[in-house]
Amino acid sequence: MQTLAVDIAATFVDDAxxxxxxxxxxxxxxxxxxxxxxxxxxxxxxxxxxxxxTVRMWANRARAPHEGRRFSLLGRxxxxxxxxxxx
Length: 87
Fold this sequence. Notes:
The chain is mainly α. It contains three helices and no strands.
């Protein structure tokens, strides 16, 4: 059994990680807002809205774990990873 001190420390570390992740996402959304506005303004045919709907559909389904697939740290922290729908 874990002691109370270890349990509190683990909870603190988990909460700190969630806080940093949340601030990072908020900062990234703020930094990418001008690019997204330009992309939406240039989307005459409605391609971006169609892709977002497709992504939401697939995101709502249960996903199998990605076995054997590795992601690089740079890929996870790249500020442009959310712009893949623009290509």
